[in-house]
Design brief:
- The structure is a single chain.
- This protein has 88 residues and is mainly α.
- Helices cover 85% and strands 0% of the residues.
- Helix 2 packs antiparallel against helix 3.
Length: 88
């Protein structure tokens, strides 16, 4: 719970990913069921598409947030050095 309430970049990423995981999973699952009911594909193909869609959507979410977090951390470390403070 401490990670989610943290004001650091890890806390922001955890909150954002939790929301994306819950909303995205419901949306992708619903779309899979609709496709199966309409007859676009059978349940086995639907499960495979759901797994591929989860990876394709959530992997960039994690990577993109992490990259922005690293850039922000490096920038704040540079500001501390210019002000005469030591970075952590």
């Amino acid at each position: 719970m401490a990670v989610f309430t943290s004001r650091r970049s890890g806390g922001g990423m955890a909150r954002w990913l939790l929301l994306a995981a819950i909303a995205g999973s419901f949306l992708l699952g619903w779309l899979t069921l609709v496709g199966q009911r309409v007859g676009v594909y059978n349940p086995e193909v639907g499960a495979a598409l759901l797994a591929i869609a989860n990876v394709c959507i959530f992997a960039p979410c994690c990577g993109g947030r992490q990259e922005r977090s690293l850039v922000r951390t490096r920038a704040s470390n540079g500001q501390r050095r210019r002000c005469g403070r030591k970075s952590r």
